[in-house]
Write a structure and sequence with these properties.
With 68 residues, the chain is mainly α. The protein has one domain. The chain contains 3 helices and no strands. The longest helix is centred in the middle third of the chain and has 12 residues. It is globular and about 30 Å long.
């Protein structure tokens, strides 16, 4: 198993989130237990990943209408 998330270079959350927010989750998910990341799980199952979905399953902005 890889140490870092195999999606890390393409992940909109890791590469586009506020650095303070990213740092909160990166150590737990992106750089360690990435298989527990909700974003990773959806992507691996071929599902659409909501843009504002956080690794733990919460949202960092109001949920977009298409995912309510």
């Amino acid at each position: 198993m890889e140490k870092f998330c195999p999606q890390i270079t393409r992940c909109p959350f890791f590469n586009g989130a506020d650095p303070r927010l990213r740092d909160v989750f990166a150590g737990t998910y992106c750089l360690c237990a990435y298989w527990e990341c909700q974003r990773y799980q959806l992507k691996e199952n071929g599902q659409k990943v909501p843009r504002h979905l956080l690794p733990h399953g919460g949202y960092w902005k109001e949920r977009p209408p298409e995912f309510r």
